[in-house]
Amino acid sequence: MKEQVASLVDDSLKDLNVYVLDAFVSEEEGKQIFNIVLDSNEVIDLNKITDASRIINDIMDTHEEVLGDVDELDIYSNEKGVVENE
Known about the structure:
Elements: H1 2-13, E1 19-28, E2 31-39, H2 46-62, H3 64-67, E3 72-77
Parallel strand pairs: 2-3
Antiparallel strand pairs: 1-2
């Protein structure tokens, strides 16, 4: 699943310096959620997530077959650990 999503969106996300780390379906509160986890070699701020989400949403709208029969699409960044002594 990750490879399929990455092949669709990674080129469009290059300018943001983010890429697809993982893509999977989970169930929360009875809903099927398609999760796309983004990562980068730098900190991903809220603006970058928003920009990436717009790009991914547009692409996924034209490739609905990838999403299947899910209730929601959730796009978020990989959580980075706390950096001490910076």
